[in-house]
Amino acid sequence: MRRALAVTAVAGAAWAAKRALHRRIGKSPLWPLPALETPVSGYSPRRALRALIVARSEPAAGVLRLTLESPELPAWAPGAHVDVTLPSGLVRQYSLCGDPADPGRYTIAIRLVEDGRGGSREAHAQLVEGAELELRPPRNRFELVPAASYAFVAGGIGITPILPMLRAATAAGADWTLLYGGRSRASMPFLAELAAYGDRVTLAPQDETGLPDLSVLAGIRPGTLVYCCGPEPLMAAVTAAAPEPAAVHLERFAPAAAPGPAKAFTVELHRSGREIEVGADESALAAVRRELPATPYSCEQGFCGTCQHRVLAGEVEHRDELLTDGEREDSMLLCVSRAEGDRLVLDL
To answer: What whole-number percentage of the chain has pLDDT above 70?
Structure first.
């Protein structure tokens, strides 16, 4: 009897230890090293969130609006966006355009781009009401800075991060105007919501008025912050037209234009003991994947962070819209960033 009890106790202790070990490894795949808040290689370790698509609608031609619900959705502020994992595994970024005061609920809007890279087509075809969606916690690189007055400029689907800013600015008692352009009224989402703001909003459908008249920015009072989201030419024009370029805040849906022509460089894969040449007309990611096909990636535009890797030596020309200054000291996104000089050494 005593022997049976002893065996049972030992087995129970072993089972408990095994469960504890699995939990510890789950928190840090590099165990027994400590868990790292910032990734040094591979994909971001931010935990995935699961949300249910509770509503699907089309607020404009070619625009899909999804309402997501889950008790685990974190709080957010105007300007934030989320990484959405599509059924195929592609990761895409969409601005939150709902109300931050509505806990447990996110709203995103997705423009269909027929000649794009496939993410929007997949979203329009497969993200249906009742389906579960995986996303990552919100990030915000387009924060609404407190100010007495704002001039908002949006182009097309660029209205999505601006919409919650209008609510916040109104609630704060700030003075603001919105210039909103698009190809046509039929293609411009959220017109019904914007109508409630009256003459604060100026609509500029291209088929009616031509390109938005940005000369109005010359008359804004000193200290006014300018927030713009839309196509790259619009954002460049807004920056040029604003009396104080330093007061302009931009949100991009595509990488910023490269500062100059790309040049070839060499990448040493430190752990693999290999050297590869990165051509002037290809990305570091493409070159690395020739040698290491399993290297993870997704958006290929410098937004999602999947291809973030540690840099051991060499100066990086950062072209992404994601990494913090601290992260840029020792890592890069392979899909868009390049070498400042002739050589980089990666922890691969």
So the answer is: 84
Check pLDDT > 90 for residue 205. Answer: yes
CB 82 within 8 A of CB 141: no
Q: What is the DSSP string of 47-64?
A: PPEEEEEEEEEEEETTEE
**Residue 104: pLDDT over 70:** yes
The one-letter amino acid code at 232 reads E
Task: Flag whether pLDDT at 29 surpasses 60.
Answer: no
**What whole-number distance in Å separates Cα of residue 71 and Cα of residue 48?**
14
Q: Say how far apart CA 221 and CA 103 lie, in whole Å.
A: 36
| C-beta of residue 93 within 8 angstroms of C-beta of residue 303 | yes
Q: Tokens 């962070």 belong to which residue?
A: 305
Please report the beta strands in 137-197, taking only residues with DSSP state E, as ranges in sequence order.
149-155, 175-182
**What's the CA gap between 168 and 174, in Å, rounded?**
9
